[in-house]
Backbone:
């Protein structure tokens, strides 16, 4: 796969179908900030309701933009409405490997548990793979057991734990190694050869 194709693949809008939904994924633009802020606030509300003060539960538009500027954010749209978002950056904790980092993953509440979060994770894992990262890391609150289990089912393993400043909980840092055998992840797009 050429570098030019890789760059275009992850920087230009891509149309695809998921369970009969026509969807579009594209990089975030500044005018998306209010909708992303609203989406992450509502998507993380169930975690906030049980006392887990993830930044996404209360972040404002300024914080949303600051977080997005730390990496590459993508939005998932259905009928021009943002129904999902994810942030991909280059960060590593504990393992001293070259890893991508997934954060601010959010799906609108009415679309949760439909496979769209997995699709966005596949997107980020593929991005990490084609850009030559050794793996992908992410973090979540230790008490968010449904998320801990989901990441483990996706092949992530705990590589450390931390307590982020101002948080009401301790977090696990997870990592998933990228394949070294040339096999690609399960991500598929209509535009991929």
Residues:
């Amino acid at each position: 796969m050429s570098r030019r194709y890789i760059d275009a693949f992850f920087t230009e809008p891509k149309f695809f179908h998921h369970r009969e939904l026509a969807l579009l994924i594209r990089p975030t633009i500044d005018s998306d900030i209010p909708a992303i802020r609203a989406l992450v606030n509502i998507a993380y509300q169930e975690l906030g309701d049980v006392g887990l003060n993830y930044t996404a539960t209360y972040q404002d538009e300024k914080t949303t933009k600051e977080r997005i500027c730390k990496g590459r954010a993508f939005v998932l749209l259905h009928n021009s409405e943002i129904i999902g978002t994810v942030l991909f950056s280059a960060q590593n904790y504990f393992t001293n490997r070259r890893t991508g980092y997934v954060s601010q993953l959010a799906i609108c509440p009415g679309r949760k548990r439909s496979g769209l979060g997995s699709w966005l994770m596949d997107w980020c894992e593929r991005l990490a793979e084609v850009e030559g990262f050794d793996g992908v890391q992410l973090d979540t609150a230790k008490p968010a057991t449904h998320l801990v289990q989901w990441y483990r089912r996706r092949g992530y393993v705990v590589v450390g734990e931390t307590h982020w400043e101002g948080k009401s909980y301790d977090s696990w840092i997870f990592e998933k190694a990228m394949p070294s055998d040339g096999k690609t992840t399960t991500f598929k797009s209509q535009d991929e050869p």
In short: Residues 1 and 130 are 8 Å apart (CA to CA). The first strand starts at residue 14 and ends at 18. The helical segments are 3-11, 33-43, 45-48, 61-68, 116-130, 145-153.
